[in-house]
Protein: LLM class flavin-dependent oxidoreductase
Organism: Rhizobium puerariae
Amino acid sequence: MKFYFMHLMPYADLDLSYDEKHDSAWVTLPNTYFDPKKGHQLYNRYLDELEYADQLGFDGICVNEHHSNAYGLMPIPGVMAGALARRTRNVRIAILGRALPLLNNPLTVAEEFAMVDNITGGRLIAGFVRGIGAEYHSWGVNPAFSHERFQEAHDLILQAWTQAGPSVFEGKHYHFEYVNVWPRVYQDNPHPPIWIPSQGSSETIEWAAHPDRKYTYLQTFASVSTVARYMKMYKEVAARHGYEATGDQLGWSLPLYVAETDEIARKEAKEHIEAFLQKFLRMPVEMLLPPGYTSVKSMVGALSAKAGHSMKQTIDSVIEEGKFICGGPATVREKLEEYQAEIGFGHLLTLLQFGTLPAELTRKNMEIYAKEVMPYLRNVTSGKAA
């Protein structure tokens, strides 16, 4: 199993009483809640944490894309990846991802990712997403074209990375006479690894598992039963196409907190994970899943995966569902080993900073996890995961 430190870069200084006036931390929350002086401090703190993960021996660090919200301050994750490219030496840098359907010119992603891949000497992991429904409100993009714009943008980027240029691309949404990206990607076998994060879209799983792609499917924040269901679906799609999916094609992203004992871990994490659940994740369903964004089948799945993303969720409820792992080192190791044996994922992406968790507790969490959890699980799962 491989271990990644994923950061959302939330606006941790958010006035948590915002919900007395506003119904969401996304799209409609006035940007007057953002203080640039505090933003300056947070961005640099968060970059320090990601760089520290390299020193602690993580396999990778992860940044991602969200717009117009307090939940994640990375509308352009390539800026963060570029800053990290020169300040890290060993970790892979996963951009999870760029929301392809939002873009008028996907070649900007082909160029941006190729630059990071060259600077790092091939440490880039390319993440492609459709983006959650809220992003379509923020960018004014019709969600009904989400799937076809995503797939067409993907095809254009792969053409730019794998075909000698200049070449021509003619699609329904994108037309280019000269596809000729400079620089070329550093990883050319045949391109950087591609990961597909999702909330649980059956169409996305079918597409990612197809033999033409065999991309790593990454299940984002969800109960362990939901993760098991969707990863089983991926394996079934692979089997239907005549091959066996490996752990390297399956990843899980979730928040985690480890401290000296179970009691200390719960006490230190409670305030901050509940702020994450009740304040930062808060949004109405119509914002998360706008009409046309997904099929009825996938909407049912996504609603199931996101059930409980409400003001009522507590540390106890998410621990019970397996959405949040919290405890002393022995408890965390036991839970992760149990879940990995059941599900078979090969990549574990942990949010070791979440909500309002301060810098000192984030570093403590990272250090105990790296020293007392990761080494043990590398040994016991190395033969199973990938």
Summary: The chain has one domain: 2-381. The chain is about 45% helix and 15% strand. The first strand starts at residue 2 and ends at 6. The CA atoms of residues 197 and 323 lie 16 Å apart.
